[in-house]
Amino acid sequence: LEFHQSVFDELREKLLERVSAIALEGKVEERYKKLEDLLEKSFSLVKMPSIQPVVMCVMKHLPKVPEKKLKLVMADKDLYKACAVEVKRQIWQDNQALFGDEVSPLLKQYILEKENILFSNDISVLHNFFSPSPKTRRQGEVVQKLTQMIGKNVKLYDMVLQFLRTLFLRTRNVHYCTLRAELLMSLHDLEISEICTVDPCHKFTWCLDACIREKFVDNKRARELQGFLDGVKKGQEQVLGDLSMILCDPFAINTLALSTIRHLQDLVGQDTLPRESPDLLLLLRMLSLGQGAWDMIDSQVFKEPKMEAELITKFLPMLMSFVVDDHTFNVDQKLPSEEKGPVPYPSTIPEAFTKFLQENRIACEIGLYYILHISKQRNKNAFLRLLPALVETFSDLAFSDIFLHLLTGNLTLLGDEFALEEFCTSLFDGFFLTACSRKENVHRHVLRLLLHLHHKVAPAKLESLQKALEPTKQSGEAVKELYNQLTEKLELCKPSPAEVTETPSMELPLPTVPTPASR
């Protein structure tokens, strides 16, 4: 039996090699004719484990497996599982529901991965959500699997895009827009021209991808991108729906917003108004298109959203005036002080600024990025001045995961300020805690921040925060888990009883009452 088996295995190996060779030799019609005959003869044995690999190999090399055979494979779960992805593609392209079942768990996994990064316990300015380069992100498991499932099949690619559009519409989750761009660029990396040449967004995405890599839109690329937008012909406006989805990708928005802030600073130095900078106007145009993606796809009205003049004539100059306030304050500090005493930092914000953040989506996005910019520069004065404007923003953008993820990272740079009562009251009571009870994600981000910085916060403040952040019955598992981690950390940091007795009595106004959690 052993001898028989080894001869059989040897023959099967030879046959598999031969099948692969036939698929590459001779005239196209002849080689496929041979393989079709072979399939006809061997298919009846497809359920025999020893012969199955040969049948599967023949089918894999046929560009068009006969319909009847595909139906038989599809009807049998084990056969379907065993067949190569090349055969599955032929089944999927006429069975959208089946393809959807295969793709759906991958899309769920992708969204989960993104959310895990946003909520990760590692808080850092250097390594955040936007740190990985586009090329690194495209190596992710989900993108690679989808790329392999699609192969060179335009029909399957279109189906995936349709799934992404539908899910984006249903959930408003912008990570689907990221996947749309990553998938196209992954096929671009593999030089799959069959798909890249038919996707009208290819060159635009390729150019934008280079900007995302540099985290900046330079003048040359800005003109290229503008060329694509201006080149949308009459009757092809539907392309705008796809372009807006590419621009709605958080990585694209991040790049456009960072470039906008940089431009505004340059304009301050050049004494130029925003309306006089064509590069800045183009960035706003793309931000506006990206931010309007959901509405455009939902309404199926494919035209660029109209830019509000006041955004350019009032809001951006206002932001520039904040930059000027910082400059003048810094210069004032360096001047020898006369009798009049030190000049205080301006503490009020124009009412119009708060109104813009509440009513205008683009203004809100740029305003939030300006606040990220000043917190990254450790500019405590400017940060505390503008923070009250964040309590109410356009569709609660200041409480979105991406903004809070970046803000918590930047706040680690202001770690020493957490010892000050005024700073903590403004940040926690004035901002975070206003939304904790109604938005679970905010609760999670505050706990992440405290896990990282609890040792910097004044003990009395920490105690009141611990009470305020205690999970309720409605709180999700993630919040409870983070809260328990924080409680454990704080227990470890408590001084031993011997140390406590030495402190003067006036510092112990509160008798220690066991909290419900520790009972």
UniProtKB/TrEMBL annotation:
Protein name (database record): Negative elongation factor B
Q: Name one GO biological process term.
A: negative regulation of transcription elongation by RNA polymerase II
Q: Name one GO cellular component term.
A: NELF complex
Q: Which InterPro entries match?
A: COBRA1 (IPR010405)
- Record flagged with keyword Protein biosynthesis: yes
For this protein, the record's Pfam families field holds: COBRA1
Region Disordered, residue ranges: 496-519
